[in-house]
Structures are given as C-alpha cells and as structure tokens.
Design brief:
The chain is mostly beta strands. The chain has no helices and 11 strands.
C-alpha cells in the first residue's frame, strides 16, 4: 500500500498512513494498527504500533522535504513491514512480540497540516487505487477537519470535548 504525502512546512507533528487498521473507536489512539509517519520538524520517519494505545517502535533519520510530494509505501507480510520513501527502503521491522495480522488502511495527520493523493492498496498481485474525495455531508466540523468518504461508506463526524489530545 502507498500514498503520496505533502507537508507544507516544518511544523511540529507528523503525518502518514495507518496499516492493518482494526477496531477503531473514539479517541486519538483508540484503534489497532501500525502508524508510518513523517515528522519534518524532527527530521525522521517514525514507525509505531497502536493496540488501543500508542507504542513507538523505531525511528529512522530522514530529512523530510517541505512542500514536495513524497511517495510513502508500506510492504507487509504477516509479521514484517518494509517502509519505503520515494522508492528507497528506509526501515524494515519484524514484529515478533505483538504482530497485527490484518486490517484496513487510513490516513493519519497528527497535530499538523498535510495533503494526500494517490492512495493505493495491492493484494494478491492486484493494485487498486482508492479515491480521496471530500464527503458531501454536513459534519459540524471546522477547518482544517474535512470528512472523507469512499464508496458507499457512511460516517458520523463529531468533535468530542474534554479529550486530551496531547497524550503522545
């Protein structure tokens, strides 16, 4: 799976993609999955695991380009992830302790602005593009939050007050 990602500046926070996503809930880290993200301010590629929490796994130094599209690709087996940035293998990790077997994909900007395009998933030798389209719904969310919807999926978008988003 992969996506092209653009960070418009070197602001704090990170943005990337979630792999093997399952069991989502309300809250910043309320899901299971692997997080692969770029952090321009810190100059790194980050791999983390979520099991209804956040567990940092490994960082790799990377001078994240500003205001340029970057291809972020995650190749997976049952226990291994290989992360490629602009065609270069940057990190390989085998999860021997708590491997996540399967799940979906999602985009994850964390406390910063980011743009995404060309999201795709490959399984069994078939590559499928996943269109990124703004949902035509009245969400009650303010900018910069924009709900996205693919296919016939229906979402419920809301803002929860009192959640501490600074836990990480």
């Amino acid at each position: 799976m992969g996506v092209e990602l653009l960070l418009p500046d070197a602001a704090a926070g990170n943005a990337g993609i979630l792999a093997k996503l399952s069991d989502p809930g309300i809250g910043a880290d309320r899901f299971n999955g692997y997080e692969v993200a770029l952090d321009a301010a810190a100059g790194r590629l980050r791999l983390g695991r979520h099991r209804q929490n956040y567990e940092p796994i490994q960082d790799a130094p990377y001078a994240v380009p500003i205001n340029r599209w970057v291809a972020l690709v995650v190749r997976m087996t049952e226990t291994t992830l290989e992360i490629m940035v602009d065609g270069k293998s940057m990190l390989v990790y085998e999860d021997r302790d708590h491997p996540l077997a399967s799940g979906g994909v999602a985009l994850r900007p964390w406390q910063r602005a980011a743009s995404y395009r060309n999201l795709w998933v490959a399984t069994a030798g078939q590559t499928r593009a996943i269109p990124l389209e703004a949902a035509e719904v009245e969400s009650g969310l303010c900018a910069p939050w924009v709900p996205l919807r693919g296919g016939s999926a229906q979402g419920d978008f809301s803002v929860e007050e009192g959640l501490d988003a600074r836990r990480r």
